[in-house]
Amino acid sequence: MAKARKLKVFQAHFGFYDTIVAAPSQAAALQAWGVHRNVFADGHAKLTTDEAAVAAATAHPEIVLKRPVGSDGPFEVEPTLLPELPDVPSKKATRKAANSAANQATRNAAKPAANKAPPPPPPDRSFLSKAEAALRAVDERRKAEEAAFRERQAALDAEKVAAQASYVEAHRAATAQVAKALEAYRKAGGRD
């Protein structure tokens, strides 16, 4: 004889409905609800101990039962009750209310301000201004240093180019002297 699985009843709110499902685990409840994020972790779903909910859910294991949000009606596979929607004001009423509020605000603004405390003085900014000036000074010093480094680097680069040209010229002259001396040495009967 197969052992019956132990079911827990989970409850969650989705859209216009409160839902329950009897399932062996939270993962099975999530699968029954067809959700891919863990609504238990963010508090949108929980284990319920409500006796009526537990009785209804365990009578239909792993099937989602619903009832309209805020109702005390029974949980059903296909709820017969519809959610109650609040009355929505018409556009004309909304416009009239907005105009009335605007007119009231205009009237209130036109009245002299009696017994209003004077606004507090602005906070002292001198410390912030000094700190900002110090920061600007540091930045300016660094810019000047960078400019001096660039000038020194340009002078070094020019000196390096001149030294390289001088070396090439001296090397060429020395090589010519070696060649001339070698030729004279060979003519005199010397061997390498």
Q: State the major sheet.
A: 4 strands, antiparallel
Mean pLDDT: 83
The assembly state of the depicted protein chains is single chain
The Rg value, from CA coordinates, equals 45 Å
What overall geometry do the principal axes of the alpha carbons give? Answer: elongated
In DSSP terms, counting alpha (H) and pi (I) runs of 4 or more, how many helices? 4
Specify the helix fraction band: 40-55%
Report how far apart the termini are. Answer: 109 Å
Q: What structural class do you assign from the helix and strand content?
A: alpha+beta
The helix/strand order is: EEHEHEHH
Q: Looking across the biggest beta sheet, what order are the strands in?
A: 3-1-2-4
Unreliable stretches, pLDDT < 50, 5 or more residues?
none
Q: How much of the sequence is in beta strands?
A: 5-15%
Number of DSSP E strands: 4
Could you walk me through the main structural features you see in this protein, from its secondary elements to its overall organization?
There is one protein chain. This protein is an alpha+beta fold and 192 residues long. The chain has four helices and four strands. The chain has helices at 26-33, 51-59, 91-110, 126-187, and strands spanning 8-14, 17-23, 45-47, 65-68. The protein has a four-stranded antiparallel β-sheet with strand order 3-1-2-4. The relative contact order is 0.07. The model has no long low-confidence stretch (mean pLDDT 83).
